[in-house]
Design a protein that fits this description.
alpha/beta; 384 residues; 12 helices
Length: 384
């Protein structure tokens, strides 16, 4: 990978040094990327807390203004092999806030429960300055998930809401997502239950994860949906067929999770990467076998080549590509490293021309992707 451009680590070092010395704006695609304090096509700069541009998820009563990039908190302790200790994780969340991040995403299932407690401790004292989203819908018995079932019954939705509020130490959840569809509970019942929670002031906005267009329409008719959260990145573009057009039609925001394909598009993983068997779901995913990663590295090489003359990294290209797709898309990359946090957030100021977008998409599309994103059990939980 080194021959295609500078490494992620080298870029971070050199960019920090040059930026500190010169304070210049990078030129991307023939246009100067506007930094904090100026208007941008992706939203407005607040000029406060690091100056990240803002975007709006949802419309009307469902609208929620957040930073153009959020922070996916799962990897602070869950499913990403080794992770920092609690104090380091809290410092990282504070660093994200200082840099302008206002949307933090968690769920009861991350741990389970531990991630919400960690995020709650990290966000203590920041009420009113940030938005925290969580999720319901998985079934747990005595603290263990029942993988064969989901539970979005009204009683469980209310139970999860109360427990999430307690663990997070907040009075209201900014977005409460259904984590996965429950075939035994009509989506109308789910939407009505969340609507009641909104009336009670326990939830501000309603979200759905990995659902199809029909489910979105039915839910939105009962309670306006603020955001759809689904996997979306250069190696998984299925939502472009029907979900993104529907979001545009109904005025619903879109929050891509795993926007770097679980770290792969950042360029730091390869066929020799060893995942922690006790705390990393990537070891169970067909796309992360050594053979698949070896083949799919050709895509990372495309990103390195694309970024070489533009002074940007593979991770920044992947995130900027999402941000350039629609003004109501808010990716939530996660990380455990302050340097990668800074690198990721820089993507909010990168603009690509339509020609550059096509060049990048065509180059990636020409490479066959090896391996499915989920195994059969996990894929069965996703609506198509």
């Amino acid at each position: 990978m080194e021959k295609s451009g500078m490494s992620r680590r080298d870029f971070i070092k050199s960019a920090a040094l040059v930026g500190a010395m010169l304070g210049v704006s990078p030129v991307v695609g023939g246009c100067a990327a506007k930094l904090a304090g100026g208007e941008s096509s992706s939203g407005r700069h607040t000029g406060e807390n690091g100056g990240l541009p803002h975007r709006t998820l949802g419309t009307g009563s469902a609208a929620l203004e957040v930073s153009a990039l959020g922070f996916g908190c799962m990897g602070l302790n869950h499913h990403r092999s080794r992770h920092p200790d609690k104090n380091m994780a809290i410092r990282l969340v504070h660093e994200a806030i200082d840099r302008g991040v206002t949307l933090f995403d968690t769920a009861e299932s991350y741990g389970p429960y531990i991630n919400e407690e960690l995020v709650g401790e990290a966000l203590k004292g920041y009420a009113g300055k940030v938005s925290v989203s969580s999720k319901f819908g998985h079934k747990y018995v005595n603290g263990k998930r029942v993988m064969s079932e989901e539970d979005s019954s009204p009683a469980n939705i209310r139970k999860v809401c109360e427990e999430s509020l307690r663990r997070l130490g907040v009075e209201t959840l900014a977005i409460f997502y259904q984590h996965r569809a429950d075939p035994n509970t009509p989506i109308e019942v789910v939407a009505e239950t969340v609507k009641e929670l909104i009336r009670e002031g326990k939830v501000r906005h309603f979200g759905l994860c990995e659902v199809n267009a029909d489910t979105i329409r039915r839910a939105h008719a009962i309670q306006p949906v603020t955001a759809i959260q689904s996997e979306y990145h250069l190696m998984h573009r299925a939502v472009e067929k029907s979900i993104l057009p529907l979001c545009g039609e109904l005025g619903i925001g879109f929050v891509p999770y795993s926007p770097l394909n679980r770290g792969f598009l950042g360029g730091s993983l390869n066929e020799y990467t060893v995942f922690d068997a006790a705390n990393d779901n990537r070891q169970t995913l067909p796309r992360f076998t050594p053979e698949a990663m070896r083949a799919n590295l050709r895509i990372v090489e495309v990103l390195h080549a694309f970024g070489r003359t533009r002074g940007i990294t593979a991770a920044q290209i992947a995130l900027a590509w999402l941000l350039n797709k629609k003004p109501w898309i808010v990716p939530i990359p996660g990380t455990t490293k302050p340097a990668h946090l800074a690198e990721n957030l820089y993507a909010a100021d990168i603009r690509f021309t339509p020609a550059e977008m096509k060049e990048l998409e065509d180059a990636v599309a020409a490479i066959p992707i090896v391996g499915s994103r989920y195994n059969a059990e996990q894929e069965a939980k996703v609506q198509n």
